[in-house]
Design brief:
The chain has 5 helices and no strands. With about 90 residues, it is mostly helical. It has one domain.
Length: about 90
């Protein structure tokens, strides 16, 4: 999350840069992006849950829910920009 949020102008910039990378077409990249998409597909998946658990205070369910939603949105923006072939 930190890298996606802080690369250039945010996750769209990260997705564009990744799409334009010389390794973007490698099968390992496709596998990794598919897995990232699966694990952050919705706020109840393990990716957003782990992110929220790491950052939110244990007794702050509202903050944890917000962080989970934010994580899904950030990854979606990144993947959408990557999928646009670097034109985002």
């Amino acid at each position: 999350m930190f890298c996606l949020l802080n690369f250039g102008d945010g996750p769209e910039s990260a997705g564009t840069a990744t799409a334009n990378s010389p390794v973007a077409s490698h099968s390992q990249v496709a596998d990794a992006l598919r897995l990232l998409g699966e694990r952050f597909a919705d706020a109840d998946r393990d990716g957003p849950a782990s992110y929220a658990t790491f950052l939110a205070l244990p007794d702050d369910a509202e903050a944890a829910a917000r962080l989970r939603r934010d994580a899904v949105a950030v990854v979606r923006k990144f993947l959408d920009a990557f999928g646009a072939g670097g034109t985002a």
